[in-house]
Amino acid sequence: MSGPRSPRRRATIHDVAAEAGISRGTVSRVLNNEPYVSAQAREAVEAAVAKVGYVRNAAARNLVTQRSRAIALIVHEPHSVVLDDPNIGNILIGTNAVLSQADHQLVTLMIDSQRDSDRVIEYLRGGFVDGAIILSARTGDPISEAVAELRLPASFVGHPPDAPDIPFIGIDNRAAAEAIVRRLVGTGRRRIGMLASGLDRDSGEDRLAGFRTALGELFDPDLVVRNPFYSYTAGVDGMSELLRRDPTVDGVFAASDAVAAGALDVLHRRGIDVPGRVGIVGFDDSSWALRCTPALSTVRQPAEDLGRRAAQQVLDQLGGTDRPGGVLLPTDIMWRDSA
Amino acid sequence: MSGPRSPRRRATIHDVAAEAGISRGTVSRVLNNEPYVSAQAREAVEAAVAKVGYVRNAAARNLVTQRSRAIALIVHEPHSVVLDDPNIGNILIGTNAVLSQADHQLVTLMIDSQRDSDRVIEYLRGGFVDGAIILSARTGDPISEAVAELRLPASFVGHPPDAPDIPFIGIDNRAAAEAIVRRLVGTGRRRIGMLASGLDRDSGEDRLAGFRTALGELFDPDLVVRNPFYSYTAGVDGMSELLRRDPTVDGVFAASDAVAAGALDVLHRRGIDVPGRVGIVGFDDSSWALRCTPALSTVRQPAEDLGRRAAQQVLDQLGGTDRPGGVLLPTDIMWRDSA
DNA sequence: TTGTACGCGTTATCAT
DNA sequence: ATGATAACGCGTACAA
Question: Could you tell me how far CA A253 lies from the centroid of its own chain?
Fold first, then answer.
């Protein structure tokens, strides 16, 4: 009942033309919904297509049109981090929505090793995609270099790369951090620490810079605990360390909600009341924020919109519009119960 | 300093051949590391490649080789669920590892609308990929049908599809559920409820069936609360409903760890001791499990291995090996503190 | 409105 | 070991 098993040759335009008794040119025109085809020819082609089971060959089409109608989203992270990052999912949603609308296929590529990196570069070079959106690129990234060298229409999200004139879309991490920390200071805290993460990229650096600015005189370098990852575990470890350094801390700025969640659990476990004795704020407004008790005060990062805008930037470049520069989206403070 | 801006024509083999002063055939041989090329020719080609900045065109190559060396991973879920599902990330890791090893590019495609579905089918048809791995397919899925019709080498993960002879890789949800629920019963609980999710697919159905079998006489249909999603929120709502239906419940089987986490929070909030008054077990052994207090007893799902095996199944088919049938991987019980 | 014929950039076959 | 040349399947001027 499952039809012939042999992988019989795929039908081509040629076969359709023969079946319909007309030329290949006309068949092609019908397939591409071009004008100047008689209704009669159209019908004949459609019938023939159905009969021979024709499906168009993308490689051949791409070869001649020099386009693939596909856009890559490159996630340049160790895989384990990908699943924990609440923003990536939303960025994906936004990107896919815009691309889908424009009839482009989003293909997600992940890089988890040198080998992956090389292969992805080959993939980009090969012309499998017409453009790329790059997440969390680091400085001196081979991917960024390849994109530049290929002059591939691209947009970087979450990271203003080295070159100043390259299109990117992000948020002002520094200003956002400064704003929420100021507000934390406004609640009367004086010994405020930071659980800093991701210092190998702009987001981490900038949040720390904003923290420092907001604190001014109050800033104490001893109260900054560093951890490479934006993770729950980083929060657990960081908070423990922070309490060790100074048991009198009364405020905490966590570099992300996941970090804040870890810190919160440490505080709970030690019976330290939040926000009574310690006020804590996070960053992202991810699903963690509402899952915490008390609900986390945090910076809302417009992740989905970031994805939409990045996709749009790439499409614009494809459409011949001039390369846009960088764009910073505004952030909001979601003030809840943790501070 | 950033080089010419004009998108000058990409160099082709032809250009390389001209530059090196040899034929295109030899250039192609060098590029593909084929034997029977003189060291001299090899050098000349390498120099020419560097000089003219040649990169091979994938479309042309795919057209003639009829292969793309790319494999699709199709995530057939509403996007919002994707980020919450802890298994997907691990499946991805496993799949990518195997494919990377075999020098194939993994491209992740997500489907979040009818439009997406149609486009992805077009993508598959177009020959952009040599095979596909399909996550959480549902019965009667257009994607599954397209894959079958195209005779595309494929492997379904997490779902034994309708057709009995199609390759898939999964776990025995029913047996796993039965095992952990038996163990829960073994702790002396008598009023055990289930927070059932994902009933529109095999995993949900099978876990419920296993639950029922394990309970035997103890089974009470009133104690099964259904929710379409495997989410934290489903756990919150479900647990509330369960307590409403019978405040004396002393055991809960949550269809996933996320669901269990939600249920646990409800229990905490009402001051119901776990595992003292209520024992609760989950499913997945995801990052949720250890994040809960008390740590969750749960079924360990070998997600990464699922991904590896699925990838291998596809590669095997590509290699001409016979289509493998379905494979069920064993699961373990991680017994911790929540029951 | 339709057909013809060329070109897209590679690989593969067959002489040499 | 290397060089011609024919596919691969499609889009598209250009001619009719």
Answer: 24
